[in-house]
Amino acid sequence: MPDPVVITRPQAQAVELQRRVAALGREAIVFPLLEIQPLPDNARLTKTLAELEHYALVAFVSPNAIDAAFAARPDWPHDIPLAVVGEGSRQALQRHGVPAGTRIFCPTDPERSDSEGLLQALDLHALRGRQVLIVRGESGRELLGDALRAAGAEVVAVAAYRRVAPPLDDARRRQLEALLRRSSDWLITSSEALRNLLDMAAQLNLPDGTATMQRQRLIVPHMRIAETARALGFSRIVQSRSGDDGLIAALQSCS
């Protein structure tokens, strides 16, 4: 029997991937490593999104950023160029009804679905002296904003949500201990989530929870996550293409 597949996305975002994994005949287990929470006060987000006509480009760092932004401003204008870093974000824009003709910048290299890949796809010279809005979480990488500022753009970054590690309560502790008593394929879509996982493993009632976790096989969709995994002591790392299709293809090749 093939190893189970552990899906570590936030609960609401794991459902469709769980269905696709199960369709492969694999046991699909959801074990979220991040919770997406609304901001305690979204007044700045609402005010910023009310002034979208000031911006030459709006960049979203994740599907969560898109969902939060479109919830805060449902009457989204469709004449503003958008930028996203991955296929999941493109799909989120489609879910929110962004017309096919909207200009959307995204990485062209499937191996670089990240800020670096997006920067390569942008016309940075055309953004010099113009305002760019980055919609993001409360925390995260500063690379995109720093690079745009270095290219002469006037960057405004606004938080739309917050990410927190789920508490390791008794039920989740038992679930994680049971998962580590067997071999699994772990789908890891965030470096922050991977760090949370290793922190949780260190708190378990196992002789060596950290080392046991490091022996599990990880499937990751980004080079940056693979680099984080190696730095954290993991050695069984499979890097897939970005998006759910890439993760599913990697699972099929590992079976």
Summarize the structure.
The protein is α/β, with parallel strands linked by helices. 41% of the residues lie in helices and 18% in strands. The chain has helices at 11-23, 43-49, 63-72, 87-95, 115-121, 143-150, 170-180, 191-202, 209-214, 223-231, 243-254, and strands spanning 5-7, 28-30, 35-37, 57-60, 82-83, 104-105, 131-137, 154-164, 185-187, 217-220, 237-239.
Instruction: State the helix count.
Output: 11
Mean pLDDT: 93
The spatial strand order of the largest sheet comes to: 3-8-7-4-5-6
Report the biggest beta sheet as strand number plus sense, adding barrel if it closes: 6 strands, mixed
Unreliable runs: none
The count of strands amounts to 11
Which class of secondary structure composition applies to the elements? alpha/beta
What does this molecule look like?
- With 255 residues, the protein is of the alpha/beta class.
- The chain is 41% helix and 18% strand.
- It is built from 11 helices and 11 strands.
- It has helices at residues 11-23, 43-49, 63-72, 87-95, 115-121, 143-150, 170-180, 191-202, 209-214, 223-231, 243-254; strands at 5-7, 28-30, 35-37, 57-60, 82-83, 104-105, 131-137, 154-164, 185-187, 217-220, 237-239.
- Helix 1 links the parallel strand 1 and strand 2 (28-30).
- The longest helix has 13 residues, at 11-23.
- The protein is elongated.
- The termini are close together.
What is the topological layout?
Blueprint: E1 5-7, H1 11-23, E2 28-30, E3 35-37, H2 43-49, E4 57-60, H3 63-72, E5 82-83, H4 87-95, E6 104-105, H5 115-121, E7 131-137, H6 143-150, E8 154-164, H7 170-180, E9 185-187, H8 191-202, H9 209-214, E10 217-220, H10 223-231, E11 237-239, H11 243-254
Parallel strand pairs: 1-2, 1-9, 4-5, 4-7, 5-6, 7-8, 9-10, 10-11
Antiparallel strand pairs: 3-8
Helix pairs in contact: 3-4, 5-6
